[in-house]
Structures
1.
Amino acid sequence: MAEPLRVLVVHGPNLNTLGTREPDVYGSLTVDDINEELGKVASGANAELEFFQSNHEGALIDRIQEARSWADGVLINPAGLTHTSIALRDALVATELPVVEVHLSNVHTRETFRHHSYVSGVALGVIAGFGASSYRLGLQALLESLSE
Ligand code: DHK
């Protein structure tokens, strides 16, 4: 069997409150539920995932920097930092790893300040608007791309 593909899954600020946070926008699943679903995808695809959620930009950046030494790719929902953080974008570029950006909601149908992403321009692809399925679809696309 080939070596497993290793992916860092990053959840940005406020995603620890999924399940109770604006369920009409973000759905009723918790971040642990989402991670469990992703784990099932990974185990059927010879992949290993490491999960990280933080409300702190610096902590997210530290973890992304560290991924350079072990990961094959990054799946990230940068949450509110999507629209504000050049530093997060720079950290993703510096890893030299393929990045897939995901959002639970369709950010393009929401407030105009959510229409711009600092991450999209350095991502392999973006999936938004499918709730928790955005993560599953994003992981599948990342793993397919890594296997090519
Ligand atoms: C999550 C957030 O927390 C928002 O700040 C983004 C994103 C959208 C999502 O849909 O997953 O604007």
Note: The chain has a mean pLDDT of 97.
2.
Amino acid sequence: MADSPQHVAIIMDGNGRWARSRGLPRAAGHRSSMKVVRKIVEECVQRKLGYLTLFAFSSENWRRPPDEVGMLMNLFLDALDREVADLHRNQVRLSFIGDRDLLGAELARRMHNAEQLTAGNSGLRLFVAMAYGGRWDLTQACRSLAADVASGTLAAADIDETRVAERLALAGVPDPDLLIRTGGERRISNFLLWNLAYTELYFTDALWPEFSAAHLDEAFESFARRERRFGKISEQLAAKADA
Ligand code: IPE
Ligand code: IPE
Ligand code: MG
């Protein structure tokens, strides 16, 4: 049996379908999703989770119609304004991962301010992935390593898994134990490609705007039933548990 997860990552999918099924525009689904983010973050604070990483906007989401992209960017701006004070009160330390150069200056400024404000907090570490893609992350890590090799501060032969991990957006953060994807799709959609190598995957048909504490419980219960072998065999794990 797995212990309770220390780091949970969530692909918050299904906003558009939730809205359409109610005869509403997709934007209504995105607006509704914010309440759920708030609720689930509170749940994770109460459960004393160490790390929560939320996929809010992918590298590929720039391909959506410009109206929808603009609507989402405004929603993120509003959400930052509204939520940061409460997060701070709850001791949440907020960070963003992704290609900030692609975001508007005002959004980037507010993200930076929120990070500064909450940097000293000791509670939940909340990462929000914005303009994030696993391939982008690996690519920028390669570029950073290559620059050090070119300048002579790093030998190519010294590049190992630890060195790569140090250059990723989630450097120093334990890999997610559990990935939850709502909305019924069973794919990773270019989320944390490196970090998810041994993560337990949990897919639910619940659409993100209807995702609740009870759904989170189900995911945690499913996780608790998994046997995480990391390449070993069951007998080795049992021996360790007995020791
Ligand atoms: C997830 O919901 C939100 C983002 C990707 C920004 P979707 O907008 O993908 O909703 P569906 O998948 O179309 O229902
Ligand atoms: C994944 O959802 C990205 C986020 C939830 C932010 P998508 O709805 O964009 O994924 P695909 O395109 O259906 O794989
Ligand atoms: Mg989707």
Note: The pocket of IPE (ligand 1) is lined by residues 12-17, 57, 61, 72, 183 (CB under 6 Å).
3.
Amino acid sequence: MKRLTHHLLAAAAAGALTVPASAAFAQDDVLNIYSARHYQTDEALYEDFTKETGIQINRIEGKDDALIERLRSEGASSPADVLITVDAGRLWRAEEAGLFQSIESDVLDERIPENLQHPENKWFGFSTRARVIYVNPELVQDPPQTYEDLADPKYDGLVCIRSSSNIYNLSLMASMIEHHGEEAAQKWAEGVVSNFARDPQGGDTDQIRAVASGECGISVGNTYYFVRLLKSDDPADREVAEKVELVWPNQDGRGVHVNVSGAGVVANAPHKAAAVKFLEYLASDSAQGYFANGNNEYPVVDGVLENPELEALGDPKIDPVNVSVYGENQPLAQMVYDRAGWK
Ligand code: FE
């Protein structure tokens, strides 16, 4: 307060008292977004919001963990209003670092499924991706039907999957711990490790390629990587996808493990009202289409999926667990992986 008075006095002394007032007004028409997303459809997404509301968007794009680090170091003086990132495990990291604030929004509470939002409204999922099993049918005649099956000794030397520190795998382990407890989850991880075809390496797409080439018989990866290959302009990519069979895991049980792309309002957001408005906009039918399609993900709002390649994969049963559990169990998940020797 003291500092503000001081500034105003200084401004008055300089004969510029009208400047802060008009600047404050202009500031309400601005929104600063830190985003780990960068897809073509995002342009239309942001343009539509500005058209609808008159609010100009400034965007800073970066890698997920780097953006969290940046927000952390900027602290209370950060210009950021909204953080968009992927995986509930990462949203949890941001939340743990005190980067988000709880917000009140009937629109979001109504439009976003309960299990895809933070219990205290610190962040919301706006699209989902499933973590599925990929199989080379020439090498594997009776494919694993569950995540648990991946530890079955009959798949010795066949399983390829990325490293345990990868956020998608941390969230998968967090869900295994949630469903089976720590001890059984570790046994499972040990079984999977003993089935490895090679040491963990590369990203999800690399695992799919390795299954197609026959280096591995079985892998695990997110759905959008597969759809990306299916839709690729490069015929070699499409060939990779065609050689691989997708298995929806745990369809006779709890359902497939899903995760979210999500966003929350930053703790010291300078434009909080605009930030809430933007999150509400992300839950609208048109924005849901742009947001999900940009990365071949599923909208969280029903009836707006328009992605023939994704729809053709099927209509799986989904694990209804609240995705915020992935964050809560994350430290334990890494410990369990380490103990199981999953690099
Ligand atoms: Fe990804």
Note: The mean pLDDT is 93.
